[in-house]
Specification:
This protein is an all-alpha fold and 276 residues long. The chain is built from twelve helices and no strands. Helix 2 runs antiparallel to helix 4, helix 3 packs parallel to helix 5 and helix 5 crosses helix 11. The longest helix is centred in the N-terminal third of the chain and has 34 residues. The radius of gyration is 23 Å and the shape is globular. It starts with a helix and ends with a helix. The N terminus is likely disordered.
Length: 276
């Protein structure tokens, strides 16, 4: 009897806090759902369709300016074998049709980032293989930043129902962190970009939903993507030696990125400690 009383009292002492935390998370999700708009309005659907149409016109324009040839090799690479085939063919055109290849590359990369199509890592490898380290890194950072920005604004228009259905728990976590770190939000966003704490795809879609200002998003993206872009582009130069995508990020690369990420938030932590 005494044991039952002890178990009852202990469970009653802990359960309210747990229940309150669960209720808080549920209330946050519900509040986000209440503010979401679904189904989308006609104007929102038209805006999203306009984005897709603009990319389609851009790709068609690049395709029409290339010389007559067999372009059956042109497809989004999903494996290293696909990437080898694409690289071998594009090398023939890069020197004579540099502008078309660059425009086509950027358009495809931005399109993939905007619509969250997986496979941009293959595009980064391709940049290194075709253009070298310096030009490749510049190209990848530009295209990735432009694509992330395009995704940011598209999500601001129609992204709320999508992210609530895919990542409700992550969205609540991200919203709490952004609310807590308003004074050092740029450092926090840099940390997220430099480390695999949250997927870049999620950050692109969720940032406008949790009210991350675009100028902060843009700066953190353009700077934070440089280290990972360098690692991937550099690997693209020796593409023939790469056996799997997992070989890109060994333990040394991951630790290095984490250290850089920690360094990015250290000034904010020091400032808060001094203020306290």
């Amino acid at each position: 009897m005494e044991q039952e009383q002890i178990e009852t009292s202990s469970s009653s002492s802990f359960s309210p806090s747990i229940v309150n935390d669960d209720k808080n998370d549920e209330s946050k999700v519900k509040s986000l759902e209440m503010s979401s708009k679904f189904p989308l309005t006609a104007w929102e659907m038209a805006g999203a369709a306009g984005v897709v149409f603009a990319f389609a016109v851009g790709l068609l324009g690049v395709y029409l300016t290339l010389p007559d040839s067999d372009y059956s090799f042109l497809k989004l690479p999903k494996t290293l074998e696909d990437l080898h085939i694409l690289r071998d063919h594009l090398e023939r055109y890069t020197s004579d049709y540099t502008v078309q290849v660059l425009v086509g590359y950027c358009t495809v990369y931005i399109f993939m980032q905007t619509l969250m199509i997986p496979g941009t890592v293959f595009m980064s490898l391709l940049a290194g293989s075709l253009f070298g380290v310096l030009r490749g890194v510049a190209l990848v950072v530009f295209a990735a930043t432009a694509g992330a920005s395009s995704c940011y604004f598209l999500s601001k228009l129609i992204g709320r129902p999508l992210i609530l259905s895919l990542w409700p728990d992550k969205l609540v976590f991200f919203q709490d962190q952004v609310a807590k770190r308003q004074d050092g939000l740029l450092n926090y966003m840099l940390f997220l970009r430099l480390t695999p704490t949250l997927p870049n795809m999620f950050i692109n879609v969720a940032s406008p939903i949790v009210n991350v200002p675009y100028h902060t998003f843009l700066m953190a993206t353009s700077i934070g993507l440089i280290p990972a872009a360098y690692v991937t582009v550099k690997a693209g130069i020796t593409l023939g030696e790469l056996r799997s995508i997992g070989d890109l990020y060994d333990i040394h690369s991951i630790v290095t990125l984490f250290l850089i990420g920690i360094a990015s938030v250290t000034p904010t932590l020091i400032t808060k400690k001094k203020e306290s």
